[in-house]
């Protein structure tokens, strides 16, 4: 038991777990897959979780220190989750780090391209980035306007999330709305 004295204690674990669950639930909302052009596949779900995390991290970038610490722990948790998922898919121990690095490059590439479009905000630029990332090899891919608009609206709504909600793991994203068919 002496080794427990040297182990880093994570006082935020319950908060991080709660917030990560909220974020993964947000990424699994059926309308993203039925109405907004995201394929309901392993990679499609990765794309949606990436989008949700990016929106959350953009909000916490302006948070107090505790919010930024929680955000860092959530990104660590995310990559641990990816590691675990890759192992569950049957990838051997030697192949896992290479695949996790690939997913990390994918995540940070998306962060960069989505942030550039969200900073403006530019729906057309965001639609193009979403299409490149979510449906790269599909010439007849669905239009990503609904998802791009959702991202812009969700980011605006996240600005109203209080520091207390961030610090307690109680930040929620807005619900997507059904797309009107014309």
TrEMBL record:
What's one Pfam family the UniProt record gives for this protein? Ubiq_cyt_C_chap
> Residue limits of the Ubiquinol-cytochrome c chaperone domain?
35-170
User: Superkingdom of this entry's organism?
Assistant: Bacteria
Which InterPro entries does the entry mention?
Ubiq_cyt_c_chap, Ubiqinol_cyt_c_chaperone_CPB3, Ubq_cyt-c_CBP3-rel
Q: Which family does it belong to?
A: Belongs to the CBP3 family.
Name this protein carries in UniProt: Cytochrome b pre-mRNA-processing protein 3
